[in-house]
Amino acid sequence: MTELNAMNRQISIARLCRQAKTAARALAHITTPQKNAALEKIADQIWVERFEILASNAMDVAEASKTGLSEAMLDRLFLDEKRLSAIIADLRQVTGLPDPVGEIFEEQVLPNGLQLHKQRVPLGVLGVIYESRPNVTVDVAGLALKSGNCVILRGGSETIQSNLALVGAIQRGLLGTDVPVDVVQLITDTDRANVLELLQMDHYIDMIIPRGGAGLHEFCRKNSRIPVITGGIGICHLFVDESADLERAVEVIRNAKVQRPSVCNALDTTLIHRAVASEFLPRLVRRLAADGVTFRADETAWSILKKLQNEGIQPAGIQDFDTEWLSLVLSLKVVNSLEEAIDHIANHSTAHSDGILTENKFHAAQFLERVDSAAVYVNASTRFTDGSQMGLGAEIAISTQRLHARGPMGLKELTTYKWIVKGDYNVRP
């Protein structure tokens, strides 16, 4: 790359950042009705432009297929009218959610008469770097706008046509509203060097949110001058306790694995208590094999299942319990106790979503107390770790770290707060 090209790229990124910073100051004072009206206009405009958006997406899918993108990534990339309708529905749901900006909490009066409270304010400008998922474009734009934040989007090269169409519709939807068009901006140059440039813009950007594979998250953590929220990589577990209702447990596991296998909250490993393994494993495999699921079985599970002579069952390899499958593959392991199940999760989970299937309240309580994941379940599918399913409207990301936010990041997680102090000409003694 020539020095001139590098300079042009830097100017382009810097210009986007300056525009976003200016828009953020204006957006912070926009009222809730004004923001909701803008969101409705965006939803309407996306629907009006649906055919152009789907045509652009088809171009991305066709090109990605030629380059050998995995089936899981192609599924994440693909849009049809049903998926686009669901994206719009999630956006409209955001308009009905309480606006966190301006919320007052933790009020107190000190002995010296000072009146204190905290008040929610937007973070400012968000930089979101993501791969293959055009739905993220709309989810992020909607949540950022409602929470008073501007956003600079950097999608992957495999989704550039989709993102150009979606961001174009979003910006056209904002025309004539009280919200500045620059609240949502897209980096259109897919050169990966732009990611590094973006990560250096700490004078303008307040938070970086990567949504993609482990490599992207690691790159952002190592190279960013800006705070980074990481997550979205899920090696998810369900443990079948000896007391579980086995018939119902099969259906929960099937939902967690099959309903949409290419996403981060899909199930990767099922742990089965030894006391029920001989009865449960064949039942589970027969049910899920009908959906096209294949299996990686540990030594004990393999000894139980090999008599089924199912070609989809293989002995587990050394890395299989540390793999986020993102496909119709399920790891199986037999454990001797609740303690062993919890230890396995501690050693192999990415702290995204893990659960227990049990009728034993004590075991459920132990599991909830000792498993330290962003979402911990009792008798439910891991697929519920989702902003829409958890009543947030949508999520900008699913955080698996401990600072600021964990789990699906909705509107409140996109705010910070300031202290408000009121006195009567008080001076400090």
Quick overview of this protein structure:
With 429 residues, the chain is of the alpha/beta class.
Task: Tell me what you see in this structure.
The protein has 2 domains: 3-229 and 409-422, Aldehyde Dehydrogenase, Chain A, domain 1 (3-Layer(aba) Sandwich), CATH 3.40.605; 236-384, Aldehyde Dehydrogenase, Chain A, domain 2 (3-Layer(aba) Sandwich). The chain has 14 helices and 16 strands. It has helices at 3-27, 32-48, 50-66, 71-77, 81-95, 134-146, 160-174, 193-199, 214-223, 246-258, 274-289, 299-305, 338-348, 361-370; strands spanning 104-109, 115-122, 125-130, 150-154, 184-186, 207-211, 236-240, 267-273, 294-297, 313-315, 329-335, 353-357, 375-378, 398-399, 407-408, 415-422. The strands form 4 sheets. The protein has a 7-stranded parallel β-sheet with strand order 10-9-11-8-7-12-13, with helices on both faces. Helix 2 packs antiparallel against helix 5 (81-95) and helix 3 runs antiparallel to helix 7 (160-174). The radius of gyration is 24 Å and the shape is globular. The N and C termini lie far apart (62 Å). Mean pLDDT is 92; it is low at 1-11.
